[in-house]
Amino acid sequence: MVLELTGSRVLAPYLGTSIVVWTSLIGVVLGALSLGYWWGGRLADRRPEPRLLSRLILYAALATLLLAGTKGLLLHFLQNRTAWGLPELPLPMAGVTLLATAILFGPASVLLGMVSPFAVRLRLESAASSGRTAGNLYALSTLGSITGTFAAGFWLTATLGTTNIILCMAGVLVVASACVYRGDVVARLAALALVGLAAVTLAAWDGQLRRIGLFDLDTGYQRVLVFNTTDERSGKEMRVMTTGPEGVQSALYPADPQALAVAYTRFYRLAGHFRPDVRRMLMLGGGGYSFPKYVLSQPQEFGGRPHMDVVEIDPGVTAISRRYFQWTGHPDVRVFHDDARRFLAREGARAQPGAEPYQVALMDVFTSHYSVPFHLATRETLTALSSLLDADGVVLVNCISAAEGPRSRFYRALLATYASVFPRVESFLVLHPDDPAAFQNILLVAFKSPAAPALTSPKADLQAMLDARFEPGPPRPGDPPALTDDFAPVEHYLLSL
Question: How far apart are CA 463 and CA 442, in angstroms?
């Protein structure tokens, strides 16, 4: 279970954390364990020897060690074959994920699966006690899995990091092999030496990456990469935060830390255009806190001095933003470390009559098309959000999709969902306003009032954003329905499954 949970962190920067990844990971591990159970049982009947079981555990340790050393190289190869001068794999997203998972986690899982039937065979003393023997061993192994699951999920991942956990697992397996059989001392010492060498080598490599400005960080919720690059459009030096294989979640110009470095965040300035009287603003998804910093630096665009509530589920991301993205906090910005859906439900439940509502809400939680939090895209979420807005409230939401064509299903589903709650919804194409079929950031702006919004501005930069307005037309046959808690297949829409 530790290997399986850690596997999600291994795959996330390259393949995301969608249901496709979890399905592949769980399915491959279960399949490999099944093969291991079958193979281990047959081998145990032929050679019920503690020494052989010890060697199987040692082989599992070496397979785990190999995983630690090759995961980055293999995943980069599968994701960027063109950089190696090779054609892309003729496989859908699910196929690539299955292949990567099978190569990385299959061997160790097969070997670990062989242990249980082998242990039962060695402990079996008579047919009369076979049930009790098998039951005791499987109960013990299940308790170990439970302990490993809680330890990895609640503590180890955020404390040790992905690679260190895998190396520790390899070391634990070497020790376990010694507990089964005390011979083969040289082989086990060599395996421990390899674990130590891998730890030193990978630590040195991480140190080298940090020296060139690339930081591989684990939080309690996700794996985060922070690195320096150059903005292709402006040529400026830029620091980037990413939590998935596609897109940038936050970015900072070190020479101008208050500027909005990511294109779609600049479109959030339309909040001040549509509600120049904003007093309270809600932002779901903090990331690098780029927009809160901009609001604080340009309060005249947003009613003078708006108060802002930011809901960010991951305290680790906030800590990263403080360390790498110059977020220092401010009295006018309250930060809530909570799931956005839970926050909306709690705030709605305790809202008092006459309490100051929000004028603007920003939804910045759909930052990668590989892993979308579906529960924040549903009609129930929007109903809760609408209840916290005043009568003229405005919601701005960033999504990644195409506006037309076969890759537009997520956009059209999200549009239908917002239209089922808000009487007016406008769309703005961020990157390619002249190409609705292009996969890009799309800003949806939902209005609680049915009155037509102002679509002109005396400011040239805001007018350019307003000119990126896209009219989707009426619903068409075959369009996806509005998303609900009961039916929200967002990964299927985004990944064209």
Answer: 16
